[in-house]
């Protein structure tokens, strides 16, 4: 969240920590979020589109519609349990370097957000032996069985 009603959605693949940032230019109500989130999820290769874990925000009130359109089950975290989305919470912390608290996020185009995600995805991570999320993600795509990685 930025200054209300500006917001972006973050999608983080748990194994590689590969990140997509989704602009939400129309607002943060469920009917405004659903088409942008659905479009972004459909851009994920099917073998990696297994499940989505989300917090309990009202923006996911149409989660059943997203599941129907993407074939991706959505699990909602327990209230006040951010550790159930630890990788995403950590990524959101990294994003604060680019999208400061209180900023009007509507001023960032999808191209701007894609450039930020590109930087994050090509930033070496200690947890990957200093490989980048993009490298690990590519390995997942080429492995033939994304579930075992």
The gist of it:
InterPro entries: Integrase_cat-core (IPR001584), RNaseH-like_sf (IPR012337), RNaseH_sf (IPR036397), Transposase-Integrase (IPR051917), Transposase_IS30-like (IPR053392). This protein is of the alpha+beta class and 149 residues long.
Query: End-to-end span in angstroms?
Result: 32 Å
| Estimated structural class | alpha+beta
Average of pLDDT: 89
Strand share of the residues?
Answer: 5-15%
Contiguous runs where pLDDT drops below 50 for at least 5 residues: none
Order of helices and strands: EEHEHEHHH
Task: Sketch the major β-sheet.
Answer: 2 strands, antiparallel
Count of individual beta strands: 4
- Coarse shape: globular
Radius of gyration: 15 Å
User: Strand arrangement, largest sheet?
Assistant: 1-2
Estimated helix fraction: 25-40%
How many distinct helices?
5
């Amino acid at each position: 969240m930025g200054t209300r009603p500006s917001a972006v959605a973050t999608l983080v693949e748990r194994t590689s920590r590969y990140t997509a940032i989704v602009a939400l230019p129309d607002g943060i109500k469920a009917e405004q979020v659903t088409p942008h989130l659905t479009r972004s999820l459909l851009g994920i290769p099917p073998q990696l589109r297994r499940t989505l874990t989300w917090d309990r925000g009202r923006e996911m009130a149409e989660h059943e519609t997203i599941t129907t359109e993407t074939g991706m089950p959505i699990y909602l975290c327990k209230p006040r349990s951010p550790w159930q989305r630890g990788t995403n919470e950590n990524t959101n912390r990294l994003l604060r370097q680019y999208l400061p608290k209180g900023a009007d996020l509507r001023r960032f185009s999808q191209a701007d957000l894609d450039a930020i995600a590109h930087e994050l995805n090509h930033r070496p991570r200690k947890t990957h032996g200093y490989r980048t999320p993009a490298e690990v993600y590519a390995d997942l795509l080429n492995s033939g069985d994304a579930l075992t990685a």
